[in-house]
Amino acid sequence: MQAHSDPHAAPDTYYVPASSIWPLVGSFALLLLGGGFALALNKQAVGPYLVAIGAGILLIMLIGWFGDVIDETLSGKYASQVETSFRWGMVWFIFSEVMFFAGFFGALFYARNLAVPMLAEAQILWPGFSAAWPTAGPGAHAAITPVPAWGLPAINTLILLTSGATVTWAHWGVLRGRKGQLTFGLALTILLGITFLGLQIHEYGDAAFSIKDGIYGATFYMLTGFHGFHVMLGTAMLIVIFFRAMLEHFTERRHFAFEAVAWYWHFVDVVWLLLFVFVYWL
């Protein structure tokens, strides 16, 4: 198979896009984000402004770069091998996300089962450290009141499980060429994702502890907070896919963009099930 950047290339050639400025724009945006965040941590007044500018430039980059990819897809420039590359790229991206959460779950399991009784007495991490895992026994911080599993977390579990079913139903719609089923399933999934985020914000507002309250507060907010960020990102991607579906960008045979977002959403569902069991329930 030959590499080719000609838009009129034969369908058995591997399309290589022309040079693009978007990687440079994205690098500059990340530089502003990282530098601005570091300055903000050091209480420099310019820090938040650099973060906001960096975020805005990053958003412009994402819209422009993904817009180029969508245009290339619709123009028929991609052969089957390009789509295979996209699929493997998404697989490895999700694998990297699995490893990301594995690190936080590892910290959770270590804190719960090994470290807390020792650290609560020895205080070997930093001056004034106090372990605060509610189920750690005598060493637990008495002021910590964990979020009960069978309240909002259980409702959010039901919401995400339902959203997994609705996005699968939407997938069946695109496979059968049913635009109404596709768009309605996506709309339901988006609504459920937004509802989940709203309930999580409400949960944080009612929580009796913060991220500063020992190892329990740190692991709780890191795990649930990063998961919430992934739900927000997944919801944003679903909204893009919804509008693309309205514009009839997908066919029964060519709809990988939808599948990629569906894979990501199912990954988010699985992570939440683990969170519900190990953070809230047990």
How do the helices and strands line up, and which of them pair or pack?
Blueprint: E1 3-4, E2 14-15, H1 22-41, H2 46-74, H3 80-122, H4 152-175, H5 179-206, H6 214-246, H7 256-281
Parallel strand pairs: 1-2
Helix pairs in contact: 1-2, 3-6, 3-7, 4-5, 4-7, 5-6, 6-7
Task: Write up this protein.
By secondary structure, this protein is mainly alpha-helical. The chain has two domains: 1-78, Helix Hairpins, CATH 1.10.287; 79-281, Cytochrome c oxidase, subunit III, four-helix bundle (Four Helix Bundle (Hemerythrin (Met), subunit A), Up-down Bundle), CATH 1.20.120.80. Helices cover 72% and strands 1% of the residues. It is built from seven helices and two strands, in the order E-E-H-H-H-H-H-H-H. The protein has helices spanning 22-41, 46-74, 80-122, 152-175, 179-206, 214-246, 256-281; strands spanning 3-4, 14-15. Strands 1-2 form a two-stranded parallel ribbon. Helix 3 runs antiparallel to helix 6 (214-246), helix 3 (80-122) packs parallel to helix 7 and helix 4 runs antiparallel to helix 5 (179-206). The longest helix has 43 residues, at 80-122. The protein is globular, with a radius of gyration of 23 Å. The termini are far apart. 23% of the residues are buried. Mean pLDDT is 84; it is low at 1-10 and 135-141.
Concise account of the structure shown:
The chain is 72% helix and 1% strand. The protein is mainly α. The chain folds into two domains: 78 residues, Helix Hairpins; 203 residues, Cytochrome c oxidase, subunit III, four-helix bundle (Four Helix Bundle (Hemerythrin (Met), subunit A), Up-down Bundle), CATH 1.20.120.80.
